[in-house]
Amino acid sequence: MTSSYEASAGRIKTSIDGHIHLIGIDRPAKLNGFTLDMVQSLARAYTSFERDPALRCALVYAEGPHFTAGIDLPNIAPHLAAGNRLTPDGEVDPLGNRAPLRTKPVVIAVQGICFTLGIELMLAADIVVAASDCRFAQLEVKRGILAAGGATIRMVERAGWGNAMRYLLTGEEFDAETALRLGFIQEIVPPGRQYARALEISRMVAAQAPLAVSAVLVNARLAVEQGPAAAVADLLPTQERLMATEDVKEGLRSFRDRRPALFKGC
Predict the structure, then answer these.
(1) Is residue 165 domain-shared with residue 227, that is, in the same domain?
(2) C-alpha–C-alpha distance, residues 46 and 235, integer Å
(3) Are residues 96 and 197 in the same domain?
(4) CA proximity to 24, closest of 66, 73, 59
(5) Is 60 in the same domain as 176?
(6) What is the reported pTM?
(7) Contacts (Cβ under 8 Å, ≥6 apart) of 262
(8) What per-residue confidence (pLDDT) applies to 133?
(9) Number of domains present in the structure of the chain
(10) C-alpha neighbours within 13 Å on the C-beta side of residue 262
(11) What is the per-residue pLDDT across 14-68, written as a single tens digit (0 to 9) for each?
């Protein structure tokens, strides 16, 4: 049984559902506020997901009525003030801001309060399902600090300068409909339905050819980071590599046989 001390300290718990890596944020008594240990545990969970060839998609979710109130600032402030990174060297950064970068997809299910780090985790993921009761806020300016997890970059990419600054500079809350309109989330569902719907999507992703899925992520990221020309230059070499895989042969067989493909990632 989890002790009250452990529950208060929080944890990142993981489990496996077929080819899906389930990653749970578990500190509901503190609105799932992230301690330094939780942030580092999340990086280890992402790293385990990336390195396990049997895992094809990750689903990040949270226990309790809220996704997260963000970082536990009193816990993490001394670490930040010393100029330290939140995630250890060599681990996959869940915020996608430095190498090593993940090459496999992440789906996130959010509900209730989703502040600061929660939004940045969303923006660094690939698909987000949100409950209609979500309350979002990138409120670092209200605490005298910078949104240093990628919001200043990805909010502008998704929503444009003015829409991003509308919330980055004020710290004001916005709702799920606004998040959908600005491209921060991809789907809204009734409260309590977000995990099940995110799992459905994760299973659809995991059923596809893993090497092709990874190639999509890598090429799209190349376009964002280095421009369309770099991504275009990568298309034919990547396609040539994929055409030599067993998964392409299976894809052709499944098309011919009119059945779902059974991809092996090779």
Answers:
(1) no
(2) 27
(3) yes
(4) 59
(5) yes
(6) 0.93
(7) 250, 254
(8) 97
(9) 2
(10) 2
(11) 999 999 999 999 999 999 999 999 999 999 999 999 999 999 999 999 999 999 9
Residue 150: other Cβ atoms inside 10 A = 18
In this structure, is residue 45 part of a structural domain? Answer: yes
Query: Would 263 be classed as within a structural domain?
Result: no
Print the domain residue range for 250: 210-257
- Find the CATH number of the domain harbouring 19: 3.90.226.10
Residue 171 in any domain: the answer is yes
Q: Indicate whether 266 belongs to any domain.
A: no
Over the stretch 82-137, which tens digit does the pLDDT of each residue have? Answer: 877 888 889 999 999 999 999 999 999 999 999 999 999 999 999 999 999 999 99
Is residue 86 domain-shared with residue 189, that is, in the same domain?
A: yes
127 and 12 in a common domain: yes
CATH number at residue 229: 1.10.12.10
Same domain for 118 and 233, yes or no, is no
**Under a CB-based contact definition with an 8 Å cutoff, are residues 218 and 202 in contact?**
no
3-state SS of the chain?
CCCHHHHHHCEEEEEEECCEEEEEEECHHHCCCECHHHHHHHHHHHHHHHHCCCCCEEEEEECCCCCECCECHHHHHHHHHCCCCCCCCCCCCCCCCCCCCCCCCEEEEECCEEECHHHHHHHHCCEEEEECCCEEECCHHHHCCCCCCCHHHHHHHHHCHHHHHHHHCCCCCEEHHHHHHCCCCCEEECCCCHHHHHHHHHHHHHCCCHHHHHHHHHHHHHHHHHCHHHHHHHHHHHHHHHHCCHHHHHHHHHHHHCCCCCCCCC
Give me the residues paired with residue 127 across strands: 107
